[in-house]
Amino acid sequence: LQGLYTPGSTYKPSVAVAGLDTGLLNRNSTVNCTRVYTYYKDYRPRCAQHGHGNGPIDVVNAIKWSCNIFFYDVGRRLTSDVYDAYAYKLGLGQRTGVEVSEALGHLTTKNDSNYTESLDIQAAIGQGNTAVTPIQLATYAATLANRGTRYRTHFVKAILDSNTGKTLQETQPEVMDVVEDKGETFDLVREGMKGVAQTIPALAAYPYTIACKTGSPQRSEGYYVGSTYKHYTNAAMIAYGPAEDPEIAIGVVVEYGGAGARTGQLVADIFNAYY
C-alpha cells in the first residue's frame, strides 16, 4: 500500500494497450529487433532477448518474450504523454480506492526535472522515474482482465452487525475508469500474457490457463562480477486467471528477487490458495 517500486516489464501491457487502442499497432505490426536500439546516436539501449532472436516481432510475441526494442520503438512513437494516459486509466499512478491510506506513486512524465528523450523510452519498459505500489499492480492486472474496465479496489466486502450477523452495508462495484475495448486490443494483450505463462513451468502446467507478465526492474544498488557492474533487481509479476473468464488478479513484488519469472511458483501458490 505504501511501498513504491519500479514496475519494470509488467508495465509493457499498458503500452501495448495504448498502441493498439490508438491505432498505432495492430495484430500484424512489427518492429525489427536487432538487439540494440539505434534510433538515437548517443543512446543505444539493448534488448535482453528472452528467446525470440533477431528479426521482426509483433505485439503478441513482444509481450510473450518481453522484447525491449519493440517497446522502446512503440513508446517513442506514442510518447509518454499518450502511454501514461492509458496507464493511469488502467490503474497505475492512481489511488485504487482502498479503505486505508495508500501511496499515489508516479509515472515518468515530460514535466520531470530530469526528463530526456531517452528517459521517455526507458519509461516505456517500466523504468525511468516510474514507481507504483503492489496494490496498483493488482488493480492494473484486474483492469486488463476486465478488458479495460477499472473498478474501485476494496478490502471491505460488507459491514455486519456483530451481535446479529445481519448485513448493515454491502460494498457495490464502482467503476473508476474505462478504456474502450476497440477491436482486438485486450484479446491480443491477453494472448501475449498467456504466452508469458507458457514460458514459466509452474504456470504452464497449471490446471487453469493463466495470463501474466513478469518484470525484473533494476534497483539502484549493484555489485561487480569481475570488472562488470550489475544492478540488483526486484522480481515483479502481474497475473490473472482463468484467462478466458477471470476470477482472480494478482500483483507481486519481491525485493531483490532477481528475474520476474522466479515468482511463478508464488503466483501458482496464490491460485492454489484461492481454489
Overview of this structure, please?
The chain is of the alpha+beta class and 275 residues long. The protein is built from nine helices and eleven strands. The chain has helices at residues 12-21, 59-65, 68-78, 80-90, 117-123, 134-145, 185-197, 201-204, 264-274, and strands at 30-33, 55-58, 149-151, 158-160, 167-170, 175-178, 211-215, 218-225, 228-233, 235-241, 248-254. A three-stranded antiparallel beta sheet has the order 7-10-11. A two-stranded antiparallel sheet has the order 1-2. The chain has a two-stranded antiparallel ribbon with strand order 3-6. α1 (12-21) packs across α3, α1 (12-21) packs across α4 (80-90) and α3 packs across α5. It is globular, with a radius of gyration of 19 Å.
The overall pLDDT average reads 93
Number of helices: 9
Total number of strands: 11
Strand order of the largest sheet: 7-10-11
Radius of gyration: 19 Å
Distance between the termini: 25 Å
- Largest beta-sheet characterization: 3 strands, antiparallel
Assign a percent range to the helix content.
25-40%
Report the principal-axis shape: globular
- N-to-C order of helices and strands: HEEHHHHHEEEEHHEEEEEH
**From the helix content, strand content and strand pairing, which structural class follows?**
alpha+beta
Low-confidence stretches: none
Approximate strand percentage: 15-25%
Give a short summary of the structure.
The chain is an alpha+beta fold and about 280 residues long. It contains nine helices and eleven strands.
